[in-house]
Automatic annotation (TrEMBL):
Gene source species: Glycine max
Listed Gene3D superfamilies: Ribonuclease Inhibitor
Protein name in UniProt: Leucine-rich repeat-containing N-terminal plant-type domain-containing protein
Lineage: superkingdom: Eukaryota
InterPro entries linked to this entry: Leu-rich_rpt, LRR_dom_sf
Claim: Repeat is one of the keywords in the record: yes
Keyword annotations from UniProtKB, A to Z: Cytoplasm, Leucine-rich repeat, Repeat
PROSITE patterns in the record: LRR
Main localization (coarse): cytoplasm
Amino acid sequence: MHVSCLIFKLVLRNNALTTLRGIENLKSLEGLDVSYNIISNFSKLEFFAGLPYLQSLWLEGNPLCCDRWYRAQVFSFFSYPERLKLDDKEINTCDFWKRQIIIASMHKRPASFGIYVPTKDEVVIEGGNIRRVHN
């Protein structure tokens, strides 16, 4: 006999976790608390995009939270970031625009801030810092 159950909330805080491998299989997950672990790489969080019902995510206390663009980087993994609360806070205007820049840089196209006027300068994001390169 096979018994299956849906997991809606998972709390794994304070466990010295460095990876979240396997959580991508919990498609019914609505809330995930992995705060105060040792998660230090944003690439280990890309699977969040495949969790369609995730509404609440707690990551505070992990090394990656020290990144200045931490919130925008996490929100960039979600198609509808307005549906997510990160560390119990919704996306704000600053996070939204930083997310737009991150997504645009992944696609090598300008962020849509309204009217786009091309310049000779190129904006480069390295390690969460914005740098302007003059051509």
